[in-house]
Design a protein that fits this description.
By secondary structure, the chain is α+β, with helices and mostly antiparallel strands. The protein folds into four domains: 94 residues, Alpha-Beta Plaits (2-Layer Sandwich), CATH 3.30.70; 199 residues, Gyrase A, domain 2, CATH 3.30.1360; 169 residues, Multidrug efflux transporter AcrB transmembrane domain (Multidrug efflux transporter AcrB transmembrane fold, Up-down Bundle), CATH 1.20.1640; 56 residues, no CATH class. The protein is built from 18 helices and 19 strands. Strands 5, 6, 7, 8, 11 and 12 form a six-stranded antiparallel beta sheet that branches. A hairpin with a 2-residue loop joins strand 18 and strand 19. Helix 1 runs parallel beside helix 11, helix 10 runs parallel beside helix 12 and helix 13 packs antiparallel against helix 14. It is a multi-pass membrane protein. Pfam families: SecD_1st (PF21760), SecD_SecF_C (PF02355), SecDF_P1_head (PF22599). This is Protein translocase subunit SecD. Keywords: Cell membrane, Membrane, Protein transport, Translocation, Transmembrane, Transmembrane helix, Transport.
Length: 579
């Protein structure tokens, strides 16, 4: 049912969506787009190795959050950043890489239509005769929302002349002076703003997530929202801002989230928020809410960038290396199959079937993740899958050997399967827990292709548990009910004689046959060596036969023959008796 549901989803995606029956490949196997960025320091700053490393970390977070996996982001020459994106990334993903992303929170002073105001600039002669003044009308502002102080004639003229419907005015740029009012377009070109000075920098954001909103009772509203949380340093600033804006009318009750000199959101403040946890709601879709959350999460960079080049690059390893990797996996799989059949006979086919099921599930999950999450399979990821062959086979070996141990203890096959599973299950869980923990640690601490290896290693470890619990063990229970396995056929892999199981049975007249005890008894009788009476595991008849053999060897007269009825001896008829 799991396999059917998995591939039914994939087939449905190929028909009604953009899914594929094959996984997406990473940069090392498919090629992609390479962007070279030249860092530009902020005012009175410099580009250091520390800021380069911080910028790389933020870019990597942005790219990963956008759903693009297996990107390569490195420094070049200590003063450039090279970003390699697999396949053909979307323009939105490229913008996440290019954008300098100096995030700021500014109060909204004026909001208007996106188009330029008619006759805003006047004629050239008028402009030359009287340039708008940039001097405020007051000595000091009452607050960052003081329109009279910050909206000077020059700022108003710039606002009137700005046409945000033109794409060239929405490309972003260098952030304005943090202590002065600025004019900015919104990201979609639907409005334009005059904004007050910076009140909260983007670095004061702790986390931002998207999801469906809930009411005070916990019920879902069905609307997508962005949940925003500030750091300990940013919380009192945000409390002060919301306290002031909540008492203002529109548009002064709005604060603008400015990213690279463009307004990405301008929500209204409905109430004072004292705990630094805000919720931005509006006409969001799942995609737009996730995009805003990503921008808020990874928006603040210590430096801005100049894009030096964007070019398509070929695969660094290519299909030949992929074929060699897959060939190595097939060769390893064949070795495991040969060993299983040699060691476990027909029982080894259970290993083969379980490995095939694990391979099918792993392939389906990778294809599904490629479609839904943008996952891309790299050569290190292929290596993780190959390593998983040994991990999966190890689980089956542990289980089979536990069953054999229980058979050696004298249990029937059905009882051995259940008892062996009970013992093997703990070992398998412990082993896979260690592997999965190692994969998590490696994924969190590593970067680039090593994370691809860690991801597939963790994924295949989970698949191993699913296969062992839902396929291998139930299959063994069913096979245990067949005569071929239950009777220990020599080709079954559970032959009692090959496992050293004691199959001694009583053959009558004080004789035993079919196992090690029979051979021991026969050897004792032929050599006339005494056998200890009451030996552990011997039947009553065996013990009496051994006692008679011991008496004969010692030259003593034998006891009269007895008959055993309900395990109680009845002596032969006494002399002179009537019966």
């Amino acid at each position: 049912m799991l396999v059917v549901a998995l591939f039914a989803s994939i087939f449905a995606g190929t028909r009604w969506g953009d899914a594929s029956l094959t996984p997406n490949l990473a940069l090392d196997l498919e090629g992609g787009t390479q962007v070279i960025l030249q860092p530009v320091p902020e005012a009175q700053g410099s580009v250091t190795s520390e800021t380069i490393n911080q910028a790389i970390a933020v870019i990597r977070q942005r790219v990963d959050a956008s759903g693009v996996a297996e990107a390569e982001i490195t420094s070049q020459g200590g003063d450039k950043i090279v970003v390699g994106l697999p396949g053909r990334p979307s323009e939105e993903t490229l913008d996440l890489v290019r954008t300098s992303a100096q995030m700021e929170f500014r109060p909204v002073l004026v909001m208007g239509a996106a188009a330029a105001t008619p006759d805003a600039a006047g004629d050239d002669a008028a402009a030359d005769d009287a340039a708008p003044s940039d001097q405020p009308t007051k000595a000091a502002p009452d607050s960052p929302s003081d329109v009279a102080y910050y909206v000077t004639p020059a700022v108003q003229a710039e606002f009137d002349a700005l046409d945000c419907t033109l794409p060239e005015n929405r490309t972003g740029g260098v952030p304005g002076d943090p202590d002065k009012a600025v004019v900015a377009c919104d990201l979609e070109g639907l409005a334009k703003f005059i904004l007050g000075p910076v009140e909260i920098p983007g670095a004061d954001i702790a986390t931002a997530t998207s999801g469906l909103g809930t009411t005070s009772t916990g019920a879902s509203t069905g609307q997508w929202v962005v949940n925003l949380e500030f750091t300990g340093k940013g919380t009192p600033k945000f409390t002060e801002v919301t306290t002031r804006l909540a008492s203002q009318g529109e548009p002064l009750n709005q604060f603008a989230v400015v990213l690279d000199a463009l307004v990405i959101s301008a929500p209204s403040v409905n109430e004072v928020i004292p705990n630094g946890q805000a919720q931005i709601s509006g006409s969001f879709t799942r995609e737009t809410a996730a995009t805003l959350a990503n921008q808020l999460n990874f928006g603040s960079l210590p430096i801005s960038f100049e894009e030096q080049s964007v070019q398509q690059i070929s695969a660094t390893l290519g299909s030949e290396q992929l074929q060699k990797g897959l060939l190595a996996g097939v060769f390893g799989l064949l070795l495991v199959v040969v060993y299983s059949l040699f060691q476990y006979r027909t029982l080894g086919l259970v290993t083969v079937a379980s490995l095939l099921v694990a391979a099918v599930i792993t392939y389906g999950v990778i294809v599904l993740l490629s479609w839904l999450q943008g996952y891309r399979l790299s050569l290190p990821g292929v290596a993780g899958i190959i390593v998983a062959i040994g991990i999966t086979a190890d689980s089956f070996i542990v289980y089979f050997e536990r069953i054999r141990d229980e058979l050696r203890d004298g249990r029937s096959l059905g009882a051995a399967i259940e008892k062996g599973w009970e013992r093997a299950r703990r070992t398998i869980l412990a082993s896979d827990a260690v592997n999965f923990t190692a994969a998590i640690v490696l994924y969190l601490l590593a970067v680039g292709g090593v994370r691809g290896f860690a991801f597939t290693l963790g994924l295949t470890t989970l698949v191993d548990l699913v296969v062992v619990f839902l396929f291998t063990h139930p299959l063994m229970v069913l096979l245990g009910r067949t005569r071929f396995f239950a009777e220990g056929h020599p080709a079954s892999g559970l032959d009692p004689r090959r496992l050293g199981v004691d199959t001694t049975r009583y053959a009558g007249r004080g004789r035993v046959a079919g196992g090690p005890k029979a051979a021991a008894t026969a050897g004792s009788a032929s050599s006339r060596e005494p056998v200890a009476v009451g030996a552990s595991g011997m039947t009553i008849a065996e013990r009496r036969a051994a006692a008679r053999a011991a008496q004969a060897a010692a030259g003593r007269p034998q006891d009269p023959p007895t008959t055993v009825v309900d395990d109680e001896p009845i002596s032969g008829r006494p002399e002179g008796s009537d019966r």
